[in-house]
Amino acid sequence: MIQSFYDARARNELATVRGILDDGMIWREPDAGSEHTGELRGADSVIGMIQEALRLTNGTFTLRVTNAVAHCEQVVAFIDRSSTRDGKTIEGKEIAIYRIRDSKISEAHFNQDNLSHDEEF
Q: Are 63 and 79 within 8 A, CB to CB?
């Protein structure tokens, strides 16, 4: 499911992404000073965040799963990320921790390797 989520994001298939997310989900990213970081609630907020990231980076925002470990209703995914904005490119790694309930992503928590890059970006 998590790989399907990232594959759909990569293809910009937001209807498919939306179908994988629970309506009442909680999405937590470190607060990098934008309205689309910190805690988001609801699948529509997550879709809005994805759309905004793609808009701000002219579609260059990419995430690639390099490894994942699943146990019961939790999945930990190791992610390589990259994006370009205003001629500046940032790359990094993050750990994404997902909770799956009723075959949907109900919670997501992210930890980046270098939050200062996101804050500058």
A: yes
